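Hey, I'm writing a tutorial for new members on how sequence and structure tokens pair up, and I'd like a real worked example in the thread rather than a made-up one. If someone can provide the structure for the chain below, I'll link this post from the tutorial.
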Amino acid sequence: MNTKRGAFAGAAMLLQPGILNELRLSWRLLRDERVTSWKYLAPALLALYVASPIDAVPDLLLGIGQVDDLGIAVLGLMVALKLIPKLAPADVLREHTADINGDARSGGPEATRVDPIVDAHYTVRS
């Protein structure tokens, strides 16, 4: 595997072809109730850092102050993309991965859901 190192290694990772599927998978897992609540940790910490007035490098230093925020955001996104799928149960992860890849053999939760048939008698009164 060819890994790049240097100042733009994180940005190069975001441009990899499979990153869009990883984003889709993480987004789907964030919305899935079957995944533990720990899935919100990385996005919450990232949002807290971005919203916080305390920075690693003050924003008063034009250019450098903003670049460190961008670097932290890219790093936080990379961590979230790797962490969230590890928190999901294996069957949930397989289900979402198959759905994203267009695998028809594994239907989503809608395909396995059976609507109950209710047989009832009723009377209409006017």
